[in-house]
Amino acid sequence: MHVEPVPADTRAVVLVEGASDRVAVRTLAARIGRDLDAEGVRVVAMGGATNIGHFLDRLGPAGRRLRLAGLYDHAEEGFFRRGLERAGLGVDLTRPAMAALGFHACVVDLEDELIRALGADQVRWVVTQAGDLASLLLFQRQPAQQGRPVEAQLRRFLGTRSGRKEAYARLLVTALDPDRVPRSLRAVLDDV
Q1: Nearest-CA neighbor of 27 among 176, 139, 177, 173?
Q2: Cβ contacts of residue 64 below 8 Å, gap of 6+?
Q3: pLDDT tens profile 116-168
Q4: In the chain, N or C terminus with fewer CB closer than 10 Å?
Q5: Are residues 156 and 72 in the same domain?
Q6: Contact 47, 76 (CB under 8 A)
Q7: Where in the numbering of this chain does the OLD protein-like TOPRIM domain appear (predicted)?
Q8: Residue 186: exposed, middle, or buried by beta-carbon count in 10 A (0-12, 13-18, 19+)?
Q9: pLDDT at 114
């Protein structure tokens, strides 16, 4: 596993599952006027939820003792819960207890939260502005997509090409009305 270095001047770390989550957190921070680098806050993509234990060991109470927060997909909650418990940050942690520690769930995942926050029409507008409408329409005509809700189609479309999730994380967060930012995304920044 490649582990990106965390500079010595780091005071806090936001742990996220992947690159698109990292882009979304950093984009929102910039939109609300925060310079995370200047604040000593790093957003670290772990390469998946199963790596949480390693990062907690390295950066948490038994390691560098940095202030930690995190963002995770609902389906990966068990990995985060077990990692936090093994790191000595609680026992039998509930979702609210994990949130109190700074670790916030995205339901179903961050893309789903962004699509719900924007609405399907606004996401389609963003796709159009990005020049991907023809690709989206072609994707929606595929037999596997027939009969699926448009939100599910959009969520799947975002993951169909390398780099697309990262590009759309930036575009969708940029398109968000400030009062429509998903709670989990806003909360993770509030905790660092």
Answers
A1: 173
A2: 6, 10, 58
A3: 999 999 999 999 999 999 999 999 999 999 999 999 999 999 999 899 999 99
A4: N
A5: no
A6: no
A7: 11-57
A8: middle
A9: 98
| DSSP characters over the chain | -------TT--EEEEESSHHHHHHHHHHHHHTT--HHHHTEEEEE-SSGGGHHHHHHHHSTTTT--EEEEEEEGGGHHHHHHHHHHTTS-SS--HHHHHHTTEEEESS-HHHHHHHHH-HHHHHHHHHHTT-HHHHHHHHTSGGGTTS-HHHHHHHHHTSSTTHHHHHHHHHHHHS-GGGS-HHHHHHHHT-
Number of structural domains found in the chain: 2
Q: Does residue 1 lie in a domain region?
A: no
Same domain, 57 and 75: yes
Q: Which residue is associated with the tokens 């090409």?
A: 161
Flag residues of the chain having pLDDT under 70. Answer: 1-3
Phi and psi, residue 160, nearest 5°: -85, -10
State the Cα–Cα distance between residues 127 and 174, nearest whole angstrom: 13
Within the chain, what is the greatest distance between any pair of CA atoms? 52
Q: Is residue 42 part of a domain?
A: yes
- Determine if the peptide bond prior to 108 is cis (ω within 30°): yes
Sheet architecture: strand order including 41-45: 41-45, 12-16, 67-73, 103-106
- Residue 111 in tokens: 């893309």
